[in-house]
Amino acid sequence: MTTESTSIPSSPGPWPSAGQGSASSLASLAPQRGAPGRTATRPRRRTPRRRFTALPLVAADVLAVLVAAGLLPDPRTGTRLLLLVTGCVLVLHSHAGMYRPGTLAVALDELPALAARAGFAWCLAAAAVAAYAPATAIGPVPLATAFAAHLTAVCLLRGLVHARRRRTHRAHPRSALVIGGAAAARRFAAAVGQHPEYGMRPVGIVGTRPDIGAPQSGAEPGLPVLSTTEEVHRAVIQNAVRDAVFLTDDPGLVTLFQQYGCTTWRVGGDRHGGPMSDHLWGYGCRRLVPPSERRGRAAKRALDLAVAVPASTLVLPVLLVCALAVRLSDGPGVLFRQERVGQNGRLFTLLKFRTLRPSDETESATRWSVANDRRMSAVGNFLRRSSLDELPQLWNVLRGDMSLVGPRPERPYFVAQFSRIHAGYAARHRMPVGLTGLAQVHGLRGDTSIEDRCRFDNHYIDHWSLWQDVRILLRTAAGLVRPAGS
Questions:
Q1: Are the C-beta atoms of 232 and 226 separated by less than 8 Å?
Q2: For the segment 327-383, what is each residue's pLDDT rounded down to a tens digit?
Q3: Are 307 and 419 found together in one domain?
Q4: Do 154 and 181 have their domain in common?
Q5: Phi, psi at residue 406, to the nearest 5°?
């Protein structure tokens, strides 16, 4: 890996344009502890009090099933179906994101999805009851009646919830920042500001300094343009900003605002399906879901545990042998502990077998690892070339600090540097860091290009699937027979 000898600015500069991937904007996600300006620029994890809550929609779904089950002639069958249908509907709706915040949700737009999931739930529940207790099986006519009653009730109840939410939005719009060119952002802010039913009140624009002199189109001329991390940080805190609306693609800034606890939206861009009501005064939009909320993250964690738990048991003899070899060769201090940057910029302590002893903590935190360091013993050199020094990180996986597959974690000092040099580097932290990753199975380990690494890492995140994790693990296992070191 190479740092490409690029000079590093000592303080946050202008906010980068959307096309540049917001490298400098995210450079401060994980600065060194004690570094100047750390408090002013690092996003503080917030859990703002949100007006949106899934509870009213969940209550509407449950009440609709209760109404339908009450129409069945046999109370015992009704009770069984009530429990089964309720559980099935809640799981299906949660999986489809029907409890997430939207713009101006309309019950009629949801009707096809509600009908499909309700029909599936009632048929599945009726089949289960018939298999368990044939004597209480429900006939087709009562089943169709219950389904129709459920669908009618859920549309009415959800409609009431959405109407109440629109009234709340109109009375108490949330502060929002608009990200994009100043001229386009002001036009959008003016349109949304005149229609508070969408629940947003633009309070500023995030752009670059050259945009400040752009024509203001006579719309919202008083909105400030923010161009540095410090300005954005201050605006988010002082205005209690809870929404960030993106007019251009910028994964790095999306991650930054999600770190602040903001709901992030993308206006325009490619749209594939979705309800017609998903717009902001004619501007098509979609919510940008944080990686932690996407489907399959629970499955990813389950895969980590399913592999890491037995693997930790199987490699225990190898761990003991490696620990003994390090102790005999290099003296006390078998494990090497180092602060690394994890998902969303969180810091954690990474474990490795010690392969050499740095002269001090500063060298450990800021010196790039170089192959064939003269201070490295024969044991340390073997552990590093064979990647056996990484085995203690199974404990990090079990703790949840890391995943088996993901971008490799780096030290805060280098994260700050590389984020300023390489567009998109900081966006690697949208997902949990890993023991291995797509970059590593393509040979990008050790002294290789950081630009190539971050491109592979972001490609992995953008196209993640559970099967891809399995493939990467299999390729990593196959690669252990011809180790190249790290």
A1: yes
A2: 888 778 888 889 999 987 789 999 998 877 655 455 544 454 545 556 677 887 888
A3: yes
A4: no
A5: 165, 175
Same domain, 359 and 462: yes
Q: Which residues of 458-473 are buried (b: 16+ CB within 10 A; e: fewer)?
A: bebbeebeeeebeebb
**Model confidence over 165-179: pLDDT tens digits?**
888 888 888 899 999
Q: 249 and 120, same structural domain?
A: no
The CA distance from 9 to 235, in Å, is 24
Question: Whole-angstrom Cα distance, residue 49 to residue 85?
Answer: 32
Of the residues 288, 305, 323, the one at which a domain ends = 288
Are 472 and 438 a contacting pair, CB within 8 Å? yes
The identity of residue 143, as a single letter, is: L
10 Å CB burial of residue 2 (0-12, 13-18, 19+) is exposed
Helix segments in 407-465, DSSP class H: 412-421, 438-441, 450-462
Helix (H) or strand (E) run with residue 341 in it: strand 335-341
Task: Give the residue-averaged pLDDT of 180-204.
Answer: 88
pLDDT level of residue 38 (50, 70, 90 thresholds):
very low
Short-list 138, 108, 118, 128, CA closest to 62: 118
Beta bridge partners of 204: 177
Nearest-Å Rg of the Cα atoms of the chain is 27
Q: Which two tokens stand for residue 402?
A: 């890391």
pLDDT band at residue 213 using 50, 70 and 90 as cut-offs: very low
Distance CA(267)–CA(192), nearest Å, equals 12
- Helix or strand run (H / E) with residue 176: strand 174-179
Residues 198 and 303 in one domain: no
The total domain count for the chain is 3
Distances (CA, A) of 214 to 177, 217, 231: 18, 9, 20
Calpha distance 382→389 (Å, rounded): 9
Q: Give the sign of the dihedral formed by CA 373, CA 374, CA 377, CA 379.
A: positive
Provide CB contacts within 8 A for 357, sequence distance 6+.
330, 333, 375
State the Cα–Cα distance between residues 91 and 3, nearest whole angstrom: 47
Say if residues 57 and 99 touch (Cβ distance below 8 Å).
yes
Looking at the structure, do residues 304 and 275 belong to the same domain, yes or no? no
Cα 427 vs. chain centroid, distance in angstroms?
10
What is the residue whose two structure tokens read 């229609």?
A: 195
> Does residue 384 sit in the same domain as residue 446?
yes
Q: Residue 229 is part of which domain span?
A: 173-288
Tens of pLDDT along 125-152? 889 888 888 877 888 898 899 999 999 9
| Helices and strands, number each (H, E), in the chain | 17, 11
Contact 190, 216 (CB under 8 A): no
Please answer whether residues 187 and 217 qualify as being in contact, where contact means their C-beta atoms are separated by less than 8 angstroms: yes
Domain boundary residue, one of 288, 316, 349: 288
